[in-house]
Amino acid sequence: MSPSPWGAVYFDLDGTLLGPDGEVPVVVRDAVARVKARGVRVGLATGRRATTTAPYAALLGVDAPCVLFNGARVVDATFSTTLFATGLPHAAAPAVVERALAFGAHVVAYVDERLLCDVRSPRPGVPVGALSRSTTEVVDLTTLPVAPTKLVFVDDPPRLQALRALLHDEALVPAGAQLVRSGPRFLELLPQGAHKGAGLARSAAYLGVDPGSVIAFGDDENDREMLALAGLSFAMGHAPASVRAVAHRVIGGDVHDGGDALAAALDDVFGR
Q1: Model pTM?
Q2: Domain, as residue range, for 75
């Protein structure tokens, strides 16, 4: 078997690697194992924190750094060493949280591995999948003594679009932060410059490979920089047009096809 020209493959989790049941389909796990057998490193790039990412990393035998919080943190493959970390400006949080709550959105603050929601909106009003199974602390988010790693606003897609416009129109997005969609019902306030593309670049440097030798898979707005940077990138079939436009290839299937299309894309590049 000849050596692969690819140094690593990075996967987004929700909407890409995971099916609607929150599991990695067996056909995808087998395809990832074949990639690793070619000597290619495997990493994850997700908006999730370490607590909810590490089990998938262990399942897949991840052996490359992982990008967490949509690029606000990068950890080694064992999740024991933080290679990079940043967070929101502390002054940015209270006004944005107050306005989002007044708008009627559910707000979640990630403070490192802690998940916090506000006393005025302790539960989301829309289906949120895996987030609904996470344990959250109920606090007053406008009086947090430390800066969040990121904020997540949860609502139906049209309302999130309206909230995004409102926060920009009212100049509530500070210079040190940016708004990014990470799923149909998730809008995130992230540190400026923290995105999966930057996380991928840091991970590639740690591995000693060029980003051009990395393959990336993603499905939403928070994957765009990563897909644009990678030497070969795949957007899932259900990805928004703006995401499909930056990817080199678009996978015909989506998360509802049992992973067949994603597995086929990997086998097309690496063979069986």
Answers
A1: 0.93
A2: 8-85+194-270
